[in-house]
Specification:
Blueprint lengths: L1 H17 L2 H18 L4 H11 L5 H25 L4 H7 E3 L6 H5 L4 E5 L5 H11 L3 E6 L5 H11 L5 E4 L3 H7 L5 E6 L11 E5 L2 E5 L2 H9 L3 E10 L2 E10 L9 H16 L19
Parallel strand pairs: 1-9, 2-5, 2-8, 3-4, 3-5
Antiparallel strand pairs: 6-7, 8-9
Length: 291
């Protein structure tokens, strides 16, 4: 079954890669209509997440965000496959970094940094394109797929512009491996922890929310400055990317402070354009364990 999944994935990537963007977005509109009206995809999850996160919004406003969210979700799904076949020039034209020079002083001093991303905007194009925009070696810390054949195939494509990859379990070894080279260690930090016993709990969108502690621990262990990346959609297929430093000296902060700063900024970002975040994930299905 896993090899069958790999074959289907390979066909899908190559097929979508042949589509012009105009056809891509026609298919995306058709797919979003399907997800909303015919074969609802996690509609109850999306609606419940939005209603709890925005208690001040009317039913009509929630419905509008939900409709825009499905359009965004389908765009991202197809753009992700399309991005794997784009040229470097086309990718840089569509995914424009506004201030990559923010890392130049660190690079000159041979200093590494940690970059925290999120499931906002198009995170897959960020994974592909960041090595094209900065002077540092880029090391993506990722969660392996359940299908290792599909995961290996996607990782080979993701690495074509210079990305290096390390699984979450091997993040510490990657830091040691590249300790003598200036690197950007990139993590998607809004994923839900597999278990909640060791999660860091924060009040996020009016709800008790578990966050991974990995980025916070990595920052304290290494002392590397921490940045956040915001991916803002300008229009379909075009994005603006902005880096912001959230901690220059994480070793001077308390445990959990980095995660709290990240979550605070992420919530502000999402509130500005709520349809651009991944609402179909069951992010609040777990409860804080009793002491």
């Amino acid at each position: 079954m896993q090899k069958t999944g790999l074959l289907l994935l390979t066909i899908l990537v190559r097929l979508v890669g042949l589509f012009p963007f105009r056809l891509l977005y026609f298919l995306s509109d058709s797919l979003s209509f399907l997800f909303i009206h015919i074969l609802p995809y996690r509609r109850k999850v999306v609606q419940a997440n939005l209603e709890k996160s925005f208690p001040d919004k009317t039913a009509a406003e929630i419905t509008s965000i939900q409709r825009e969210y499905y359009r965004h979700l389908c765009d991202i799904l197809l753009e992700s496959f399309k991005g794997l076949t784009l040229s470097a020039e086309e990718l840089k034209r569509r995914f424009a970094y506004q201030n990559p020079e923010i890392f130049d002083a660190l690079f000159e001093n041979k200093q590494s940094a940690i970059v925290l991303g999120s499931h906002f905007g198009n995170w897959e194009w960020g994974v592909l394109s960041l090595p094209l925009a900065v002077r540092h070696k880029v090391v993506g810390i990722y969660k392996p797929l359940s299908n290792p054949h599909a995961g290996d195939y996607l990782n080979r494509l993701r690495k074509k512009w210079g990305l290096h990859l390390a699984s979450m379990a091997s993040a510490g070894r990657a830091v040691v491996k590249y300790h003598d080279q200036p690197c950007l260690f990139v993590l998607i930090a809004d994923q839900t922890p597999a278990g909640v016993k060791h999660a860091h709990w924060l009040w996020f969108f009016h709800q008790d929310t578990p966050f991974l502690q990995g980025a916070d621990k990595l920052a304290h262990q290494t002392g590397y400055p921490v940045f956040m990346v915001d991916v803002l959609r300008l229009r379909r297929g075009f994005y603006e990317v902005i880096f912001t430093e959230i901690s220059a000296h994480p070793e001077k902060t308390k445990a959990g402070d980095i995660t709290a700063l990240y979550a605070e900024r992420l919530e502000k970002l999402i509130r500005q354009n709520p349809s651009q975040w991944l609402w179909s994930h069951r992010r609040w299905k777990r409860k804080r364990p009793s002491v």
